[in-house]
Amino acid sequence: MDSGISITAEKLIDYTAKKASFITVKNDELEKIVGISSKQMAEKVVDRVAFWLSEKQNGLLYCKLCNRGPFTKKGLFLHLTRLHRQEIKTMLEEELKREVKAIL
Asked: Where are the domains of the chain?
């Protein structure tokens, strides 16, 4: 089960970084990643993790993980996916495990 969670978390990193960077994502993009049956759970997990990754201050974007910034949307996305990829994956794994436990 853990390997499935790890694989899912890996697939969700870029999507989560986009959400945290306030980049518009298409509705069906998440469905393509996790499938229709897991979409609702994945949305919850992604939203929770994205909340801890970035913040807007006076219209400027900052990374909550290392307090760097300000960034443009694309700049923050690149920063998150290049510098914090493993941290985001770990956060996603923890949230996915929590969601799966709640179901079981």
From this structure: 2-103
